[in-house]
């Protein structure tokens, strides 16, 4: 796809496109209470607002892979950024929930186009001895986006006169402004497949084997809970009594951003662990088991009766986010290599992305529904533990032991 020198410069640019695309997901949590007050949205409806970006991805993952096959990965990313940026600007003018929901869905189209095309680009552009590390950086795009999106918005919306409308304009402008950087620094890939019959064959070949589906379920078991928990952390812990309401909003927002940032850091660490020969199966089981334990610690106790309540809960959330990062990088690193003969990495990634985005959509909806039914967050662990158990079961069945578990299948 490119010379080593060009690729070494280009793959970090691709990672940044993923971060910017994901910031359109994570610009919402710190703004959610402002939007609910402004547009009159209920708690359960706010869960749909959180997840609608992922719903677009959940419905369009394979369609995005078709786009990538036809116009190439680079221009798929550019189109995705254009969709996300323009929709964010349009959303800044929203005066009702329907308008905002529609623009969020279009942002989701942009998000899915970027996140389907980018992983294979990172793998192709990174020097061969840096592929696992580069995939680790890619795996951290969501956590990094959460750190930036939630942290920046928490400060801007609570410590300045900037409204959520202006925050939407800012995100749209930054995303659009980065498009020339991509066009200038990322080399064009090979021409896409223009024959739709050929594309259909490629996609069918890619998804007819069970392994992409299994990896998709494992990834979804992570995103179902991580996205939901991190989306609602500012709401869950937002009633803590501190010096003032603004102090609460800023401190909880920044704390949530740090929790998300830990995920970004841990994804990079996971890439290094894979580079050093740690078995993917072990990393997946450890990550999902730790998520089950720590999410129970976050939700099950009545922290209001414990000295230093919010600190302990946030520490548990930090471990939850950090350990969970073992999952996305590990799955993505395997996914770019498992396309069967006649298939393509873009189609495999499209399927997996479609599955984990569906989980990203339903996670906040289910979590908010459990909280509403239970009149509190204390039963929310039932969702997270169930997801972890499913993910661990799929790992034990479908991911062989070994440092390179799929090599013996001729799929690495």
Folded structure, characterized:
The protein is an all-alpha fold. It contains 16 helices and no strands. 58% of the residues are buried. It is a multi-pass membrane protein. This is MFS transporter.
Provide the β-strand percentage band: under 5%
Poorly predicted runs are 408-412
Figure out the total of helices: 16
Q: Indicate the percent of residues in helices.
A: over 70%
Task: Give the number of domains.
Answer: 1
CATH superfamily: MFS general substrate transporter like domains
Compressed to H and E, one letter per element, the order equals HHHHHHHHHHHHHHHH
CATH topology: Growth Hormone, Chain: A
Counting DSSP E segments of at least 2 residues, the number of strands comes to 0
Indicate the CATH class: Mainly Alpha
CA(first)-CA(last) distance: 19 Å
C-alpha geometry? globular
C-alpha-based Rg, rounded: 20 Å
- Major beta sheet summary: none
Global mean pLDDT: 87
What structural category arises from helix and sheet content? mainly alpha
**CATH architecture descriptor name:** Up-down Bundle
């Amino acid at each position: 796809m490119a010379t080593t020198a060009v690729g070494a410069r280009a793959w970090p640019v691709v990672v940044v496109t993923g971060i910017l695309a994901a910031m359109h997901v994570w610009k919402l949590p710190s703004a959610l209470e402002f939007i609910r007050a402004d547009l009159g949205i209920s708690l359960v409806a706010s869960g749909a607002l959180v997840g609608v970006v992922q719903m677009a991805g959940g419905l369009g993952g394979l369609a995005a892979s078709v786009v990538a096959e036809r116009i190439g990965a680079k221009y798929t990313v550019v189109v995705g950024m254009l969709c996300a940026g323009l929709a964010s600007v349009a959303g800044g003018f929203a005066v009702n929930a329907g308008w905002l929901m529609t623009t969020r869905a279009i942002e989701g189209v942009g998000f899915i186009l970027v996140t389907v095309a980018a992983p294979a680009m990172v793998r192709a552009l990174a020097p061969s001895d840096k592929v696992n590390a580069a995939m680790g950086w890619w795996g951290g795009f969501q956590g990094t986006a959460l750190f930036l999106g939630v942290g920046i918005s928490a400060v801007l919306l609570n410590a300045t006169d900037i409204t959520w409308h202006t925050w939407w304009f800012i995100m749209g402008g930054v995303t659009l402004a980065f498009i020339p950087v991509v066009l200038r620094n990322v080399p064009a890939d090979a021409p896409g497949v223009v024959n739709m019959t050929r594309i259909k064959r490629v996609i069918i070949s890619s998804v007819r084997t069970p392994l992409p589906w299994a990896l998709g379920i494992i990834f979804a078991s992570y995103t179902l809970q991580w996205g939901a928990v991190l989306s609602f952390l500012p709401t869950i812990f937002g009633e803590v009594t501190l010096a003032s309401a603004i102090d609460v909003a800023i401190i909880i927002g920044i704390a949530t951003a740090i929790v998300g940032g830990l995920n970004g850091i841990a994804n990079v660490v996971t890439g290094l662990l894979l580079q050093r020969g740690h078995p993917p199966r072990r990393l997946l089981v450890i990550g999902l088991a730790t998520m089950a334990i720590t999410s129970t610690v976050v939700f099950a106790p009545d922290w209001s009766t414990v000295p230093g309540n919010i600190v302990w809960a946030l520490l548990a959330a930090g471990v939850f986010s950090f350990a969970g990062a073992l999952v996305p990088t590990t799955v993505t690193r395997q996914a770019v290599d498992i396309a069967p003969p006649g298939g393509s990495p873009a189609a495999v990634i499209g399927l997996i992305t479609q599955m984990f985005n569906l989980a990203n959509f339903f996670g906040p909806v289910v979590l908010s529904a459990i909280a509403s039914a239970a009149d509190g967050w204390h039963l929310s662990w039932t969702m997270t533990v169930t997801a972890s158990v499913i993910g661990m079961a799929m790992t034990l069945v479908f991911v062989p032991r070994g440092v390179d578990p799929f090599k013996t299948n001729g799929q690495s």
